[in-house]
Design brief:
Helix content is 34%, strand content 36%. It is built from three helices and six strands, in the order ββαβαβαββ.
């Protein structure tokens, strides 16, 4: 499965980047480049993401700290993902998704 990123803009509302699939490897670099182009209010919708790596979680955490709204399954924040990873030593499940990460 690959990563798909859709950019939605409706009127004056914040830009929404809706991501599905896996955010790993080269997909993280693509997402980073897209995020660098955004300069206004931003929502990153991760509802359909099935897998992220530690680099993706770090990137999302940076943008969350800069004010981006991160929409994740079950209303878990990126900082919550990091905490779950620490507790489970690298692997954790979120809804139907299995997330992997190391070195947070």
């Amino acid at each position: 499965m690959t990563c798909k990123i859709d950019r939605h803009v409706i009127g004056e509302d914040p830009v929404v980047l809706r991501i599905s699939g896996r955010i790993t490897g080269q997909n993280v670099n693509i997402l980073r480049a897209l995020l660098e182009q955004e300069n206004g209010p931003l929502t990153i919708d991760l509802e359909d993401v099935r897998l992220v790596d530690d680099e993706a979680v770090s990137l999302l955490a940076i943008h969350e700290s800069k004010g981006a709204k991160i929409k994740t399954p079950h209303c878990i924040s990126v900082s919550g993902l990091r905490e779950k990873e620490k507790q489970s030593k690298g692997r954790f499940e979120l809804g139907q998704a299995t997330m992997w990460g190391t070195g947070f």
